[in-house]
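Backbones bend. Our protein:
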Amino acid sequence: MATLLQHLINGISLGSIYALIALGYTLVYGILRLINFAHGDLFMLSAYTALGVCAALGLGDAVSGGLAVSSWGAFAAVLALSMAAAAAAGWLVERLAYRPLRGQPRLNLLITAVGVSLLLENLAQAVFGASPRRVPALIVDTTAFTVFGAQVSTLDLCVLGTTLGLLLALEFWVHRTRMGRAMRAVSHSHETAALLGIPVDRVISITFAVGSALAAGAAVLYGAKYPKVEPLMGVMPGLKAFVAAVLGGIGNLRGAVLGAMILGLAETLMAAYGASTWRDALAFGLLILILLFKPAGLLGTYQREKV
């Protein structure tokens, strides 16, 4: 019982990270009907940004002595600065790569997204090198408390608390602010929103920025839990988060979170009970099943499109 509960805690923690990445996919798809395959690479760049922020603040690895004690303030600073930098990068990618092609067929945008992804990966290899780098331990991972024999660590609490805070902030922004209402209007119809005086281009750029900021939050948490950064680190988490978004119903924010939790739990349980070599294949198996039996996703809705 204790072992199963421990795996469930680990699965929820992993699913929380996938959820933040998946929300970026679903935000962009909801407003542009575009799968931004460069999103995983923005996640990767955010991890390198976090390393740069740590270096700029004089923070090192707690084990090697660079950081004497763990600091929640330092973690918050790295998180905030990384998210701000990622938001700027997401805005720049949308402005330079996607906006000039907005009136073109969707296939052009899709190919451009793949091209931007490859560009960012190769740029990271050229600038940072291919060798993995270790993420400084900003938070000492100790046991916070025990539940029925399962240990809940301070790092798990940090992941869950940060994810929950960002999800609540996103929910408030989307449903309670003027820009959030504008974003929902643009997601229904660009033309109608423009006729109502909504700056469509600005709303789309801000949506890209918010999605990229959420990916940066996931990158900081992922680096804290799995302390290794490399140029290709965004490929698999990005693909799995995309599967989570489709599983929950891409375009649905709560569906993305639900799909991410299901995927995180399923992946952790599969790895724990003798099928660790299949954990990466699980995501794509779930994708095939959901496309076969419920193409709109668990919380998604069918939409008619004029051809």
Q: What stands out?
A: The chain has one domain: 2-235.
